[in-house]
Amino acid sequence: MALEEKIKAIEEEIQNTPYNKATQHHIGKLKAKLANLKEERIKKASSKGSDLGFGVKKSGDATISLVGFPSVGKSTLLNKLTDANSRVADYEFTTLEVIPGVMNYKGTRIQILDIPGVISGASSGKGRGKEVMSIVRTSDLILILLDIKKTGQLAQILTELYDVGIRLNESPPDVRIRKTSRGGVTVTSSRKLRNIERKTIMEILNVNGIHNAEVTVREDVSSDRFIDAIMANRTYIPGIIALNKIDLIETKEVDRIRADIPDSIAISAENNINLDRLREEIFKKLNLIRIYMRPRGGKPDYREPLILKKNSSVEDACKKIHRRFLSKFRYAFVWGSSAKFPGQRVGLSHKLKDKDVLTIITDR
Question: Which tens digits make up the pLDDT trace of 12-34?
Answer without folding.
Answer: 999 999 988 888 889 999 999 99
